[in-house]
Structure formats: structure tokens, C-alpha cells
Design goal:
By secondary structure, the chain is mostly helical. The protein has eight helices and two strands. Helix 1 runs antiparallel to helix 8. The longest helix has 22 residues. About 35% of the residues are buried. It comes from Halopiger xanaduensis (strain DSM 18323 / JCM 14033 / SH-6). This is Metal dependent phosphohydrolase.
Length: about 180
Amino acid sequence: MVDSQAGSGRIETYSGCGFDVFDPDPDDVRLLDIAAGLAHACRFGGHCRRFYSVAHHSIHVSRELPADSPRLQLLGLLHDAGEAYVGDVPRPLKARFESFERVEERVLDAVWTAFDIEPPTDDEWDRVMAADDRLLAYEADRILEDGSWAGRAPDLEYDLRSDSFDAIRERFVSRGEALLAEL
């Protein structure tokens, strides 16, 4: 049951469990909840020409990382996992509100702990963010009216057409389980 007291940071998740965004407990983290939250969250704050989910984006980010490194691919898949609980806030807004970034970082720390993953090193995180930036430029070029602000789009071949919420959620869970099994 989810705490409904005013001021509580506890939210109900897809699986029906609760999660406290201000005091994240790794025991409350579920891959299914992350997948569902991200499958329903639209990239670019919802301002794209067609729906494109953060879960779909995260699957592509994981595939941009070396195939011989399941750890890096898993970090790529989960790099936006905090957004499953706090929403997809555009980068310029996040940059202005450090307290929001701290909340999201604490959620990510709970995710790493929940899946028994050592937090990423600075080098690993830089590699994940470089993949994220490549996808950002690619996606902005293809699904925004004018994505030129994101930089020159790299030559990638990802399908950005939306699958159903159920399908993308299941693809995310399947990829996550496969990568976790390889660690």
C-alpha cells in the first residue's frame, strides 16, 4: 500500500509497489517498474512530432555501447532509470535545479544497489553519456521540428517508430534481464 499523506515522497509504481523518491529504497526497485515508467514517458518533454519513449531511447543507447561489455550496455539501458520515478525533465531545466538532479542521482544509486551493480566510474559514465548524446542528436534530427540545436546528427540506423507501450516495456525488461544475466 502506498502512503497517501500530503508531503510524502512515496508514489505507486506499475507493479503496485511503492517507491519513495526522496528516500529511495533499493528493495522497492523493480525492472518492470522502470520499464513501464520509461515506456510511458515521452522524450523531449513530449514535444516531438510523434510519440517516442524514453524506454525506446534507452534500448538504443545500450546498443550504442560495445557489445563485448554487458556492463556498459546495462549502464546505458539504465542511465535514465531515475526518470521512471521522477519523469523525463528536459536537460535545460535539470541543469537549473541542482536539487532535482540530486533526487534523480539518489534514485539511480538505489537502482545500482538493487541490481547489485557497482556505480559507474567517471570513464564509464562519460562513455554512456557520449552514447546518449549521439542518440540525442540522431533523435532530435528525426522526430523534432528543428533539432539542429542538438548538433549534427550521426549516421545511425535506429528505428524510432513507436511500438506499443506493452511491447517496448517487454523489450526493455527482456534486454535488462539478458544483460544482468551476463554480469
